[in-house]
Amino acid sequence: MSTNASSKRARELLALAPVVPVITIERAADAVPLARALVHGGLRTIEITLRTDAAVDAAAAIIAEVPDAVVGIGTVLTPADLERSAKIGAAFAISPGHSSDLLRAAATGALPYTPGIQTASELIACVTAGFDTVKFFPAVPAGGLAALNALIGPFPSVTFCPTGGIGEANAAEWLAHPNVITVGGSWIAPAAAIKEGAWQAIEERARAASRLRKASH
User: Fold this and answer.
1) Among 15, 60, 125, 166, which residue's CB has the most CB atoms within a 10 Å radius?
2) Would you list the DSSP string of 189-205?
3) What's the chain's average pLDDT?
4) How far apart (Å, rounded) are the C-alpha atoms in residues 152 and 213?
């Protein structure tokens, strides 16, 4: 089974940094200073989740005003979300899970896409559709590294972006795994820090995260 172009390009983008900040933005006005803080701290790849009304405007503002940022759209649940992400100029899209409709749309579209999985059956669906880089979500509640190792047994060539329950204390442990390309996490820019405009603190967290070392892939 060959890897499709969407998955190949998504893998390249996820490999740009050891951590992808997972961002939920309530106010679009916070987007640009937040993105600048993350980029200055060394994390260019950013996931803006589609969990708020401000998400699309926030992502569009970052794309327009922070050219060094690689802006992805997260919480992509439908082909319509995928299409909307492409229209605003997102660099990639990523989902907490997937559906057959999403896999078909992504496989034939131009936008790099990473589906989410939690089980072997879900991973089979992704791999047979040409997606061999996936989001493992929620990583810690779903069984942590032990569960990931169990999945890798029958799928040794799949690479993972674990997200969910990963923070400053355990990110390095996940990144030491040879099948983990990057991790996603909200600890770098938590909602309270965004609300307070604590850009310097966010930049410092990003700088610390950017120094985490990934295993060789």
Assistant:
1) 166
2) S-HHHHHHT-HHHHHHH
3) 96
4) 21
CA nearest to 164, candidates 180, 147, 148, 141: 141
Query: How do residues 76-108 score in pLDDT, each as one tens digit?
Result: 999 999 999 999 999 999 999 999 999 999 999
Residue 202 phi, psi (nearest 5):
-65, -40
Instruction: Please state the pTM of the whole predicted model.
Output: 0.96
DSSP secondary structure letters along 118-185: SSHHHHHHHHHTT--EEEETTTTTTTHHHHHHHHHTT-TT-EEEEBSS--TTTHHHHHTSTTB--EEE
Residues written for the chain: 217
Residues 206, 45 contacting (CB under 8 angstroms): no
Cα–Cα distance measured from residue 217 to residue 214, given in angstroms and rounded to the nearest whole number: 8
Q: What is the pLDDT of residues 30-52, one digit of tens each?
A: 999 999 999 999 999 999 999 99
∠ CA 48-54-59, rounded to 5°: 40
Catalytic residues: 47, 135
Cα dist from 179 to 27, 79, 182, whole Å: 36, 28, 9
Closest C-alpha among 152, 159, 151, 167 to residue 216 = 159
Inter-residue contact 184 to 162 (CB < 8 Å): yes
